[in-house]
Amino acid sequence: LEELGRVPEARARASEMQRRAEDVGDLYAQVTARQYLAFWRIADDDPGEARRQSQAALAIWTHGDYHMQHF
């Protein structure tokens, strides 16, 4: 969406994706959504919130196993 210039919609979808992922316990989608949200915080010149979103994403991801996403 961002490539099409539909930035507000991309942001809204990332927020909705995060909420839905949390509702169903989908860790992969939660991490992905938080990274999108962090990207938009950087675009807003808010690196502190971007870092918080990234750290929150990393905190919920598994650290004891190796998954395709680690590659």
Terminal Cα span: 26 Å
Order of helices and strands: HHH
What summary fits the major beta sheet? none
Integer-rounded radius of gyration: 13 Å
Strand percentage: under 5%
Could you characterize the architecture of this molecule?
- The chain has 71 residues and is an all-alpha fold.
- Helices cover 69% and strands 0% of the residues.
- The protein has helices at residues 7-24, 27-43, 47-60.
- It is built from three helices and no strands.
- The termini are far apart.
Name some characteristics of this structure.
71 residues; mainly alpha; 3 helices; globular
SSE order and pairing:
Blueprint: H1 7-24, H2 27-43, H3 47-60
Care to give the gist of this entry?
The chain is mainly alpha-helical and about 70 residues long.
